[in-house]
Amino acid sequence: MTEKPQALYEAEVKQADIDHHTPTAGAMTGHIVANLVVLENKLLQAKWYVKGVQRITLASLLSDLYDEALTQKLTIGQALVDEGLLVPTTTAEFEEYAMLTEAGVNKYQSADYLIDMFVHDYDTENLFITRAIALSEKEQRPVLALKLTFLLGQNNHRIAELQALLGNSPRTGLDEEDED
């Protein structure tokens, strides 16, 4: 006899709570999936509202970044499923596990502000990715580690590209202490 959906979901919630307090590669990767959901929303908002002389070019770039984030989310989510691990799938889970945040006011920000925001978003994602890679290796999950390593490389490339648009080197403003 198969278990009832409610019982299965309750077991999932219990396991997710345990995994997030340990933490595990699956839990850390779940944070990455949630961050990618928020990133998609932010990229779409920026694409729709970006203004300025470079609007057409930036809207095209933001569209590409959006498509890439969607593909990354699907790839990483499927990797979790393939490993028998939990994937956040509800809005409540995305809100709970994402470190990235959205703001309606961003649609009125300058193009430079938005670009810098995305630089920091990708850098924040990398904190979770590097931790998930280490946990994947520790838990002997080489396929997950490989997919996450590829994601890290993509993010590093995006950081460098976006920083170049701002006239910066790849790590400008990311490794120094804020002077606020």
Automatic annotation (TrEMBL):
GO terms for molecular function: ferric iron binding. It comes from the Bacteria. Residues 32-170 form the Ferritin/DPS domain. This is DNA starvation/stationary phase protection protein. The gene is dps2.
